[in-house]
Amino acid sequence: MSQNFQKVKRKLIADMENTPFHTQQSWCDIMLKAANRCISDADQKDFFRFVLNPNDSWDVTEPTFMPVAPEKEIKINTIDTFQISEVEDEKESMGTVTVQNKIHTNGKITYITSTPAVCKSSQ
Asked: 32: part of which helix (H) or strand (E)?
């Protein structure tokens, strides 16, 4: 294990122990922070080995790692328009919704916040 992963592991364990109770959000935050601190492929492999077998048990099968070819880039529009249909009392109505996407990348995680676009019309 690298010195970096040993530091990541100590911080991960401390974060888990210092949280009085866990929710899905707290668990996710701790795991994502720890994964983001793994800076090399070896760190990432050690991270998953630890997560899958924290007690270093002989009964747990060693995970198999394989390279994944990067996919083509995905273009995320800052403005999107969607066609929607709604059925109410056996009547169907069609319409469009325009949303504005705010894109923020932190480390290797991209967050997309979609909000209704503000309609600007001349009056």
From this structure: helix 24-37
